Amino acid sequence: MKNNKIVIYAGLLVVGVVxxxxxxxxxxxxxxxxxxxxVAETNQxxxxxxxxxxxxxxxxxxPICGMDLIPAEVDTGGLSPEQFSMTDxxxxxxxxxxxxxGTKSAGDDNSISxxxxxxxxxxxxxxxxxxxxxxxxxxxxxxxGQEVRKGQLLGTIYSPELVAxxxxxxxxxxxxxxxxxxxxxxxxxxxxxxLSENQINAIESSTKVTEYFPVYATVxxxxxxxxxxxxxxxxxxxxxxxxxNLNTVWAEFDAYETQLSQLKKGQRMSITTNAYPNxxxxxxxxxxxxxxxxxxxxxxxxxxxxxxNEQFKPGMFVTGKIQNDKNFSDxxxxxVPSSAVMxxxxxSLVYIKVKPDEPVFKMREVMLGVRNGEQLExxxxxxxxxxxxxxxxxxxxxxxxxxxxxxxxxxxxGKTMTGHEGHIGMQENNVxxxxxxxxxxxxxxxxxxxxxxxxxxxxKLKEALVASDTKQTSMEAKAMTEVLQKMDNSKLGNxxxxxxxxxxxxxxxxxxxxxxxxxxxxxxxxxENMVAITSNLNSLxxxxxxxxxxxxxxxxxxxxxxxxxxxRNPYYGDAMLTCGSVIDSIK
Length: 587
Known about the structure:
The protein is built from eleven helices and 30 strands. The protein is of the alpha+beta class and 587 residues long. Among the domains are: 88 residues, Elongation Factor Tu (Ef-tu), domain 3, CATH 2.40.30; 122 residues, CATH 2.40.50.100; 154 residues, no CATH class. A hairpin with a 4-residue loop joins strand 26 and strand 27. Helix 9 packs antiparallel against helix 10.
């Protein structure tokens, strides 16, 4: 009986344990699973398939394009503070491509590419001057671009001095036999004033003084500058017009300081231009400027081209390619594509892919050497075999900013994304207060007042691009150029002058071009420099918004300035008018 009781008690104990586990153990597991799912739901972020920079804590519509937001990949953790990951969808949209760092880059043709313009051959420029004092009664050449032929009538001049000399000639004609030396001296005097033998003989035979004397061109060419006007009193030797012979022109290129050792006089180059995209012109370097431009840190490289049928027009953009004689395959050097490097003015940055099989990246600062075509030598900061972002670098940088990691605009890291607004922001601070974002520049009060006039012209230019109006864009670019060229930049530093010079250069390119896409391409570079200067102004009459389109500039992203917070995209116009977001504001 005693043993039977023990068996019964043991059985009851086992049954109790099993029932307890079934009643409480299962619910505990369910509660754990529920809490885990709740945490997962709490950490879930939502993004846009077209605009991966948008991040919101709850589902909804994309504030840019209106599409339904989709769940973003949840960070699995295990990353260092400097590392961040991107979704496969974001990588595909930004067309992010990586390469393994080595001593060569596939497809590089070991050449140096230079950009430049066609200029007038100054060796073929002549100035048509007045050879005696007088008043211009009539000027037949009165606009630039006019064709002039040698012997053509340029105009007529009334010269009391020449009238007296003609009278003197007529007086000495009767003394030709008795005083031949005096007669010859008077004729020589007229010859020194560029009167021809025929003109002098005509005066003798007519026995009349010509009051309004004709002036003939001594050279042939194209008028490049009209330097006098009808009614002007001119002195002996004073220029009337400048004539350029365009049978030959100069192709002038800007070469970086780091490329100087690779350039020399006599090197052959192939030259292309947008006007003739299917033609290549051969040239030879005839001049390498011995003086470096301190403002742009470039030197001028020149080639002289034969201008058959006047196919080259001064001011036309050209590209020159020079084969490099140096050994590009030096195994001691590392080369990366120029598209892989972001330059802030004082730092050169690349993005490393830290995990071969996962889209995990981090930023690294590198030191650069010489440039060889589209390849840059890396002196330090990278090792052979490392994988870096070669295309879509700015999109990766934008992802770093969104996740609060170190980036080009943020040396120390820290969140800059406002999840509820869905764009990068600096919490309404003036950009110039953020020393890590924009390089510090200083401007005088007078310069700032003048530059604000340029900003008004800029906003009109931006609206013309929004409207995709090529002609209006060209007109607004010319108007803005005139405003900026009148500014006093004598007190600016080298960096400030470089930004202003690049702005004017891009404006001239936009004004001269009649293709809307080409105008927008130059607008990208113009905005980089406009934002740099505007962000350092002490005060503005009104708030300006820095806006960005991640799809512009071949998916590299591009910014612009706007007086309204509403997005009106100048890079796409009506095609994608509202594509973009406000990334900052300048007060």
